Amino acid sequence: MLRSCLVDGGLDEDRVRQVVRLMLERKPREYIQILYHLHRLVKLELLRRTARVESAVPLDEEQQGRFRDVLGRLYRKELDMSFEENSALIGGVRITVGHDVYDGSVKARLERLKGQFT
Amino acid sequence: MSNLLQEIETQIEGAKSSVAKENVGTVREIGDGVARIEGLTDAMYNEMLDFGDGVVGLALNLEETEVGAVVLGDFTGITEGQEVRTTGRLLQVPVGKELLGRVVNSLGEPVDDKGPIENDTHYPVEKIAPGIVRRKSVSQPVQTGIMPIDAMIPIGRGQRELIIGDRSTGKTTIGVDTIISQARLNRAAEEAGDTNYRPLYCIYVAIGQRQSNIAGVVDVLEKAGAMPYTIVVATSASDSATNQYLAPYAGCAMGEWFMDNGMDALVIYDDLSKHATAYRQISLVLKRPSGREAYPGDVFYLHSRLLERAARLDENYGGGSLTALPLIETQMGDVSAYIPTNVISITDGQIYLETDLFYQGVRPAISVGLSVSRVGSAAQTKAMKQVAGRIKLDLAQYRELAAFAQFGSDLDAKTQAQIERGKRVVEIFKQPQYNPLPVEIQVAVLWAAQNGYFDDVAVDNIKDCQDKLTDFLQSRKTDLLKKIKTEQVVSDEIAGQLKAAVEEFKPTYTQ
């Protein structure tokens, strides 16, 4: 079902809506559970296409553009970017793409250092 | 040139500050030591997962959107939503001679109070068994020191011999006796400076045993001085099913190190019934489909991949060996249950212990008819072959005749003699626990029995007579025993000397 919602490897929002609407209209057996499962798959698919960039200080346009370029090249697809400010990181950035995490924050380094001592 | 150096320096700097990619998942569900983790798209099968705070898990189910993992250690601190990271490492345990004399858990961490284990060699817990090219057929004996086994069901180095029987029929005792026997042989060879003797190191793996039982075994081994040649991998009934499941593989990895380094090792898995039960528990909680007796479909592979790792390596590959003695507990003597039949079909023979025999006082309670070693006499010294060649057949015939004789019919002299001889051999094969006998004593006693020197001794006095003969030989005929041990054959000369020795002893023995 999820596969029918994909166009060129990417999720087509209209198709997803269509599928959900059809399911609710026709009400096949156990349709609620099926929809829950679809919801989860869509959530994971969206997660895979989203890059979350957290930084200690806000990033300017140019920096954001560079992140967009580099990540786009790395994953060979266009990612939905979201930029957030997170002062808890102390310094540096933390990028999450799907289930991959690139943690270059000062906080993570301190944690690693702590791990080495204990 | 300076440009090149600068370039390298910048590259090194760049490498230092580069951020490693991590694969992260979140715990969706946790219970009974099994976690279901969403994400972790890069996780490998059997990979170690980092739950943080030193807690690690093992990825066992790789599914479309999530990973099923078993947690090693304390899982009570893990909460839903917690982050889990892949480590890129497979589960491994420390191996090496430093572990000898120690009691460790299934992760190779010491659980005795003898301090940390200093070693830097590790082996993966799961390893593919050596292939056909690296193997060689079994030809060297493992002297268990248990007379009926060494005489009738010989075990060779690299063999897999199952010890099967109901509860409390002496399965563990056979394992422990074998360890003690190896320790004595190893020590004797060390003291004599015999470099030709290949020491056999033992690994005792306790799977889901009572703590008191494990403590008992360790105590016996300590008292017998066997611990310096032994590693105990202990998982008690209170350990998690995961640790019980891993223990035999950990023990096997420790044994493989000896094998790979040209040495000989013996692993005792006590017992694989509990191992199958622990695996069943994990599988059910991981929601794997269950089959017969609710065991998962791969319960055969669970044991076959473990026991296949026992091998005798070719000289070109170091010539080491790993012998496996798995134990299986049956219910009401039913060998046709699921797990027993599986393991019987994997191993190279079985030693079947019978409850009836045990209570009749025949201890070790080995059933001659049902016990077999598929390696056979290839793993016996020539001397033992000479004295014990026909004994298994004779005993089997005796049992049949004895059953027939119960009808009270008159028997001819030959049958009568066969029955009388059989009764005496059964007596001779009785042996107290933790008292393995050296092979030369076994040969001498069996020679005396085969040549009818015990025929005129009353059956009740056979054990006494045998003990006194043993004392006599050990105190007065040490040269003869040494000769049997070194030559490993009963030559005409040795037979003559044995005859003289037994004939010298017989008149001194009064019943």
Structure in words:
The complex is a heterodimer of chains A (118) and B (511). Chain A has 118 residues and is an alpha+beta fold. Chain A is built from four helices and six strands; from the N terminus they run E-E-H-H-E-H-E-E-E-H. Chain A has two domains: 45 residues, no CATH class; 67 residues, no CATH class. In chain A, strands 4-3-5-6 form a four-stranded mixed beta sheet. Chain A is elongated and about 60 Å long. The model of chain A has no long low-confidence stretch (mean pLDDT 85). Chain B is α/β, with parallel strands linked by helices and 511 residues long. Chain B has three domains: 70 residues, Elongation Factor Tu (Ef-tu), domain 3 (Beta Barrel), CATH 2.40.30; 287 residues, Rossmann fold (3-Layer(aba) Sandwich), CATH 3.40.50.300; 122 residues, Lysin (Up-down Bundle), CATH 1.20.150. Chain B has 16 helices and 19 strands. In chain B, the strands form four sheets. In chain B, strands 8, 12, 13, 14, 15, 16, 17, 18 and 19 form a nine-stranded mixed beta sheet that branches. In chain B, helix 4 links the parallel strand 13 and strand 14. The longest helix of chain B is centred in the middle third of the chain and has 22 residues. The model of chain B has no long low-confidence stretch (mean pLDDT 92). Classes of the chains: A alpha+beta (118), B alpha/beta (511). Chains A and B meet through helix 2 and strand 6 of A and strand 1 of B. Strand 6 of chain A pairs antiparallel with strand 1 of chain B, so a sheet runs across the interface.
